Amino acid sequence: MNFLMKIYLLSLLYHDLLIFQITWLQVKSQRSKVHRIRENYWLSSGGLIAHADSPSEGGKSIFELNQKVPQKKKVVVLGTGWAGTSFLKDLDISSYDVQVVSPRNYFAFTPLLPSVTCGTVEARSIVEPVRNIIKKRNGEINFWEAECLKIDQANRKIFCRSIIDENLAGNNEFSLQYDYLIIAIGAQVNTFNTSGVLEHCHFLKEVEDAQKIRRTVIDCFEKAVLPGLTEEERKTNLHFVVVGGGPTGIEFAAELHDFVHEDLVNIYPSVKDLVNITVIQSGDHILNSFDERISSFAERKFQRDGIQVLTGHRVVSVSDRLINMKNKTTGNDDSMPHGMVVWSTGVGTHPVVKDFMEQVGQGNRRVLATDEWLRVKGCENVYALGDCATVDQKKIMEDISEIFKAADKDNSGTLTIEEFQDVIEDVIIRYPQVELYLNSKHLFDVADLLRDTDGNDRLEVDIEGFKLALSHVDTQMKSLPATAQVAAQQGAYLSRCFNIWDKCKDNPEGPRKFRSGGRHEFRPFRYRHLGQFAPLGGEQAAAELPGDWVSMGHSTQWLWYSVYASKQVSWRTRFLVIGDWSRRYIFGRDSSRI
Amino acid sequence: MNFLMKIYLLSLLYHDLLIFQITWLQVKSQRSKVHRIRENYWLSSGGLIAHADSPSEGGKSIFELNQKVPQKKKVVVLGTGWAGTSFLKDLDISSYDVQVVSPRNYFAFTPLLPSVTCGTVEARSIVEPVRNIIKKRNGEINFWEAECLKIDQANRKIFCRSIIDENLAGNNEFSLQYDYLIIAIGAQVNTFNTSGVLEHCHFLKEVEDAQKIRRTVIDCFEKAVLPGLTEEERKTNLHFVVVGGGPTGIEFAAELHDFVHEDLVNIYPSVKDLVNITVIQSGDHILNSFDERISSFAERKFQRDGIQVLTGHRVVSVSDRLINMKNKTTGNDDSMPHGMVVWSTGVGTHPVVKDFMEQVGQGNRRVLATDEWLRVKGCENVYALGDCATVDQKKIMEDISEIFKAADKDNSGTLTIEEFQDVIEDVIIRYPQVELYLNSKHLFDVADLLRDTDGNDRLEVDIEGFKLALSHVDTQMKSLPATAQVAAQQGAYLSRCFNIWDKCKDNPEGPRKFRSGGRHEFRPFRYRHLGQFAPLGGEQAAAELPGDWVSMGHSTQWLWYSVYASKQVSWRTRFLVIGDWSRRYIFGRDSSRI
């Protein structure tokens, strides 16, 4: 196709899809009361980028008039990933003294990391300096490029060390005092203690990882074409193995396939038939967190592309030349020579978080447990969000008697529909699994819950009937996935809580406390799933969209371009990412080893 | 200024300047016979990019008809810098079997390296894969990403090792046989054996060096703002020292000044007054290879910008915190604390070249000596070009008697003007210093050389008069600078020689051999200086243009943009470099530490 034509199409399609996406986000049906509650509830939060409210400056003038400025509370934030940045972006710092500690002085748009591995997008196009993000706050947020070594919960102190060891004038260790600590430190790679993984595998968590993978892919081709190698040796050097069939691993495999077949075969023609890509997945299907239509679409696409998918295999060890597996069905051992292995399975705990978990009595857990307000269980004034934490949702059955008692205003021992409807709004906010249960049963009204086993409406239920009606609700509880979307929503949620803290002390906005009476100060965090993409290469993608929609193919890839461009953290990165896509479209990907 | 306005101006100015440059290159006066000779002589060479002739394919059909294909000569090229790439770009490979060995699988546009150090231009924008450059040859040029460890001149063999040590299936060492060897390996950093330089200084020779400098500059700011440092410690961390006042060092200092004052002060406001940049120069002036008007313009500009220039100082040692110098005038020792040192002085010899020099009896030299045809002295079939070599120009006084004898056709013992004019064309080609001498004396005709001491025309001279007339000519001999321009011209020259080899065997095109009779097969290499730029920051530059023109200021910076954009090796890099400049103009430079 003609170059100019390509550029024209690119701009045209991108423009159309952006408009489509905006329209699609705006046109949302609100079908029932339950849905309306949900919509209202989320109206003021929103993602990292969508949120455009300026922080309230109300408190400032009072301080100025008062002269006697009250000591601002010290907030220390650990981490500048999705959670931390999202928290900082919306925080009203007129009432807090904020300090941020992170070994990375930039925010990285991690969903584009697989694109960086093959040069579809440049590393610099997906990062934005934290100081740029926070500088709108007039420098009142301090950022330190350092690693947190230890959290001392008893003394409300953290100990840090600059990541620059060499040639630093002055002491590179320091400590910070906090009133509130926000742990948004993310997770690290989980090797499941598989031997040889740390030494011989690549990972895909940091920008540097992606850059290293890019160099290594080129290395594999350069070593495969060296003079004097046997064909078998060339094949080994060009065998790329991806361990883990989740979205990151699959996207990397797809990107690599495109890179090889669109660009590298042209400049390494002598070895173009020797390249192999293998995905090893311990489960029965790749992309098993997705709808099964997407999973099988991806498997068929990979089969057509010649990407080998090895399901039901568990990796037992990795050496510099071999990857050893166990077939989970037959129990047989198997091994393959490889040129490069990318390890992309699960998340592990950061040592500093592990140590902190022991201090707060969570030593036997994998991630920090928080309540629904993102407060770390077992200690005060410490919040945890993003990949290093998980929300421990309270079961409704634990509080069922208290809910019944609170609802049964006339102490009649039975609950009428009216009495139930009086508390249901608070119940739905406090126990989001109720709403999930209603949706899963296709019930549009909470009154439907109280129907008898034959499906007939009942006018009232006793405590046993009430327990029975809600007995399956807790099965809908799901732990949140370790995704950017969850982290960003948690950050935005928490900053909102901090911003309205004073107001909510007097006028709590949260649901009723069924057990102790009164109301919670804030509404609990609730995750809104906006959908999930899986780019599959060859300008095709699959997507799970809200409302159980599934979309696959070329148009979904364009939707992906559109969504990812619009979600960029700044106009600079948006401009760069779109520029990179166009550059790739016109000139292909660069294969220089830098 | 409005953003859109900026973009508009950018495109407008760039367009205008490109046209101006093209016109300027086309309009060249040819004032005298001497100048005409020079022009004709250079008509078919040209720079790396300008040359667009397709290689002749004449030989091929003969081979095909003949069936008995003669063995192609094996040409091995070491290096993919300016010299190597320029040689490969124009080589007609129908008669050669070409193999290229280099540890870098890309060509880097090194004059833009200082821009990469501060993110004005991205590293990837200035590199082009070697395989892309040579693939038009249908893969008949083989490239190996490896380092040459040893040249075995006696057996016409080189020994190489892949730069990838780890995880390579197969042997990573190999050897290659050559009929002709082209050494275009470049030079390495010259520390002049100053202690601590290798350990504690940054260099600016490779793309990786520039990337490392970029990270370190950000590190210096990050360490300077850490809590708990004294002001003195912050100042030390922000003291940037450049050793060497040549074009590279000066351009880096200027780039750094712009980066600090245009971008970094905005995001590190607390330390903006603590930044210092110092240039240490052993000579009396910076940019002392340039016209002194440029040198003093640069010094004044640096003084206004607050960049400290320390002339007449020699660095004696560098430690992790201090740089120790000797004042060459007073003899006093002096030292300064530093946050970062960039060492940018002179070029040193690559170990493999050093070893080879010992094999060919040049062990006591600094760089490989070649004759005027770029053939390494002391051995056969080995050529050296670029920074690792220097052309040992023959002195005219060594051959003066032979020239006289050859010119004196009637053996009269005296030379008439006509006899002299008969040989002068060959003399000028063989001894380019004659032309330089004529230019320096503002003589437009060679006959003027033979005038007597009072300036009167003479009809004939004897051998003593002839010697006297040419006695000062050799003072004009200059060794060629170690620049990209020289290397590129040498590569283009040598490929032309290789391309016309068969033709010139029968019909030599070179000048007369005054000593042994007959003619040289090829014309000797002659360097054509096209000018030199020194960007000085703040959108100002200085330039030496052909014909002793000097240009300074903002318009020169635009000329610089124009020339550097047009000189890019591919449309891809041209597009990227211009994109980077525009991006910097609109969004500033990125300060993420990646």
TrEMBL record, chains A, B:
GO terms for molecular function: calcium ion binding; NADH dehydrogenase (quinone) (non-electrogenic) activity. Its EC number is 1.6.5.9. The keyword Metal-binding applies. Residues 395-430 form the EF-hand domain. Keywords: Calcium, FAD, Flavoprotein, Membrane, Metal-binding, Mitochondrion, Mitochondrion inner membrane, NAD, NADP, Oxidoreductase, Peroxisome, Signal, Transit peptide. The keyword Flavoprotein applies. It catalyses: a ubiquinone + NADH + H(+) = a ubiquinol + NAD(+); a quinone + NADH + H(+) = a quinol + NAD(+). Pfam families: EF-hand_1, NDH2_C, Pyr_redox_2. Residues 1-19 form the signal peptide. Its cofactor is FAD. Belongs to the NADH dehydrogenase family. This is External alternative NAD(P)H-ubiquinone oxidoreductase B1, mitochondrial. It comes from Olea europaea subsp. europaea. The lineage of its organism: Eukaryota, Viridiplantae, Streptophyta, Embryophyta, Tracheophyta.
